[in-house]
Amino acid sequence: MRVFKFGGASVRNAEGIINLFDIVSEENDRLVVVISAFGKTTNALERILAGWRQGDPETRSLVREVTEYHISIAEQLFGAATPEMERVKSIFREFGGLLDRKEPGDYDHDYDMIVSNGELWSTMIVEAYLRTRGLRSEWADARKLLITDDRYRDAGILWESSQRAVRERFNFSSADLYVTQGFIGATEAGEATTLGREGSDYSAALFANMLDARDVVVWKDVPGIMNADPDWMPSAVTLPHISYLEAVEMTYSGARVIHPKTIKPLHNKGIPMRVRSFADREAEGTLISEGAPQGEMCPVFVRKSGQMLLSLIPKDLSFVMGDNLAGLFHLLAQTGLKVNLVQTGAVSINVCIDHEEHRVDEIIEELKKEYTVLYNDGVEMLTVRHSTPEAAALVTGSREVLLSQKTRNTVRLVVR
User: Fold this and answer.
1) Taking phi first (over 0 means left), then psi (-120 to 50 degrees means alpha), and beta for anything else, what does residue 38 get?
2) How many Cα atoms occupy the beta-carbon half-sphere of 1 within 13 Å?
3) Nearest Cα to Cα of residue 2 among 29, 41, 38, 40
4) H or E stretch including 211?
5) Which pLDDT value is given to residue 256?
6) Which CATH class is domain 300-415?
7) Count of alpha carbons within 13 Å of 377, Cβ hemisphere only?
8) Nearest C-alpha neighbor of 324 from the set 344, 308, 338
9) Fewer beta carbons within 10 angstroms: which end of the chain, N or C?
């Protein structure tokens, strides 16, 4: 069997869903199809979350926009007066009722409760469409399959219970194709969780590992994995075949084509992944596997924006090794902040982190108890894999370099 994953851009309208049908209907093997929320629905739900928590009266209009967007797609697929259409309308009535019933609580818990709905909506609509077109498909609720801890917004998988649930549900006794959600799971108590922003690729890799899939195909609105974001570097080229290690390095540095956690479950069982273009089905895309060609690679450029550079000096001027570093990393792990770069001196520590406002404020206040804290906000981290002096100069230009770090073949720069 195979796992296909479709990103939000691939299913942002009715034409995209019809194209999805064409792709899966041509496949002869059994399939698990993992689907993200439609288009920019996750962003819209994050705005709804913020408005709902603040009691903003404009939240209702945001909910209407999201509802109308999905209903418009569904009407194009099913028609205005069909049982499928009534089901779509009912799930949005249920969502409005959820906002009315609940009171805001812990931010991360509220995030998962609200934002997880995007994947539920998209998969219900897509699976219903595949069934009406004659495919032997079933909808599967990932909240009953990927059982997680209660670390909301970045949940960890409880492996044994998840694998048992996945294998029991995806037995292909009554279906040739299952449609399920990426990005979401649930605690043992049934509370919705998410696996990290853009985590649908990770879900696909987990299902592939647990089911011993032949491969994973990720269908994107790009021709494959490229050596740079083409919107940033128009000269970017597609990489035809890269290793698991190269993919991990790229995604950790901020390349957004696949989620950073995706590779490990695949590598553990030697399952290849291919990233292909949803718009150009004839193109081969990029293969990620163990047997990637050896030899020199062209430079790979990754830009990660929305960063903050923290500079910490212990108030007692103690050396930073040992207890200082251990305490710092323990604190960062507790708050769930993503650390992208660390550089130490005798009595100073520089850390580049993702700027998540409510978490950053919390950690800065805690750090001020023992450190003098300086920070630069709104910076970018630039990474050049397989770097050359010319490649590093190309990305920095005239920008101010706040921090640089170089290893054997990688340069990382924090710039503004």
Assistant:
1) beta
2) 21
3) 29
4) helix 200-211
5) 79
6) alpha beta
7) 7
8) 344
9) C
Give the dihedral sign, CA 243/245/248/252.
negative
Q: How far is CA 248 from the centre of its chain?
A: 14
> Which tokens hold the place of 281?
């089905």
The two most distant CA atoms of the chain are separated, in Å, by 72
Other C-beta atoms within 10 Å of 375: how many?
A: 16
CATH 3.30.2130.10 residue window(s) in the chain: 300-415
Q: Are strands 241-243 and 2-6 parallel, antiparallel or unpaired?
A: unpaired
Provide CB contacts within 8 A for 172, sequence distance 6+: 1, 30
- Give the N- to C-terminal CA distance of the chain in Å, as an integer: 47
Domain with CATH 3.40.1160.10 in the chain: 2-289
Q: Using an 8 Å Cβ cutoff, are 385 and 323 in contact? A: no
10-residue mean pLDDT series, the chain (416 residues): 96 97 97 97 97 95 97 95 92 93 94 97 98 98 98 95 98 97 97 92 98 97 92 93 93 84 96 95 94 84 94 83 76 83 88 86 88 93 93 89 92 94
pLDDT at residue 328, as a whole number: 83
pLDDT value at residue 322: 66
Q: Which residue type sits at 282?
A: E
Residue 362 tokens, joined: 């919390």
Enter the DSSP assignment of 272.
Answer: -
8 A C-beta contact, residue 74 and residue 85 = yes
pLDDT value for 403: 95
Alpha helix segments (H runs only) across 58-82: 59-78
Provide the residue count of the chain. Answer: 416
Task: State the pLDDT at residue 321.
Answer: 66
> Which structure tokens are listed for 36?
């993200």
Contacts of 229 (CB under 8 A, 6+ apart): 236, 301, 303
